[in-house]
Structure formats: C-alpha cells, structure tokens
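Suppose you are handed a protein chain with no further information: no name, no annotation, nothing but its sequence. What can you learn? This example shows the usual starting point.
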Amino acid sequence: MDEEKLTELLEDVRRGEVTVDEALKRLQHLPFEDLGFAKVDHHRALRQGFPEVILGEGKEVPDIAEIARAIRKRGASVLITRLSEEKMDTLKTRLRGFRFHRQARCASWRPKDAPIKGKGTIAVVCAGTSDIPVAEEAAVTSEIMGNRVERVYDVGVAGLHRLLGHHRQLTEAALLIVVAGMEGALPSVVAGLVRRPVIAVPTSVGYGASFGGLSALLAMLNSCAAGVTVVNIDNGFGAGFAASLINRD
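A reasonable first move is to predict its three-dimensional structure. Written in structure tokens, the prediction is:
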C-alpha cells in the first residue's frame, strides 16, 4: 500500500463508505506479512515510495511466486530482478498477468491505473550491445516506478559520432543513466555534454584487465566531469531506483 492508496482508504472511512472494521482488515498486514520463510515489507511503499523489490537470484521459484503474489494482493506494483531463463519459464506458469523482460532478466506487474510519477524523461544510455542487459534492468526499473524512458544504445566512445547523433535526446532528458564496461569512459563524455545529473553504471563487460568491471568502476569514480554519481558494478536496478527518486522530487 502506497501513500495515495492509504489516503484514499482513510477518506473512504471519513465519508462512511468503508467501515472501521473493513479498514482494519486491509491494514492488518502492515507493516509486514510473515510468510514463514520471508517477511514481506508492505510498509516500504509508504517509507520509500515503491514496494519491496524481489531479488530472484538465490531464491527458489515457489518462494519467489508466493512473495510476488503477496505484494500484488495488496494492489502494489511488483518487480522481480535477476531471474535466469529457467526461472522465468517456470514463473510464467505461476504468475499470470506478469510481464517478463528477458534482456533485463526481470519480471514485473503494475496496476492498470498506476500513474506516471516522473516529472521528466529518463534517458538510459549504454556503450555497447554487451551492456544492454544491465541497461535494460535500469530501464525496466525506471518504467515500473512510473517514469517515461528513452533508450539510446550502442553509442560507446569507440565511435563518438553515434553518441552525437542523439544529442537532442540527451540534452532534453531530465536525467541520464549511462551504462558502460571496458574502460568506462562514456559517462564522463555524456556528463560533459549535458546540464543534467548522470548516474553511471559500470558493467563487468571487458577483457582481463577490466577485472570484472572494477576498471570501469574506478574510471567512473574518478571522472573529471561534474555531476556524475556512480552505482555498483552491474547494478542497473540501483541506478533505475535512484533516477526514479530524483525524477519524482
């Protein structure tokens, strides 16, 4: 339950359209619901503006499905991250009505009446096609959190003219998520072109001396361009979440 739904419920009680007993039934699982193997934090949307997100990695399919159903039952949006192909195929038979985003390795469900909350457009930019899975995780996270998203892919610094061909999209975005592996130079270049916040996401894409994304991470942390904030390696979800909070305020 988020702030809007709680306000609606309290207004219904005030008008006499919902009884106090009925309101108590709807609120009985706040702040959390104990499923035995997991405690689902139904209060998180009130505290942070978005419901608890399910990390699919390391969880069994039946457990993922039960947590997802518990969140959806409260009318809240559901996002499941880091799903393998095998888990996606199995979950399709258990979670009807969910969308499965194979490139992003995510699954999602959003109420039909969920509003667009973002003030502007979030541009998700990535250096190479190998970085797309992380970029898509950021894009899907931003979208389910109520943002308009534009994708600008395969515009790495090895062919700078490709990036400059999207100059208008870059400058008109409210903020940008820039994803890159290898030497991680793209966020610095983008930040030097725009007057908007840039959230940089290093990926683990690269050869031996990239050290699984550590090289890109350090390059982004040492960016000479102002306005660059860096999240962890391959953390598209973290970038999408942070961008959504920035775009909402």
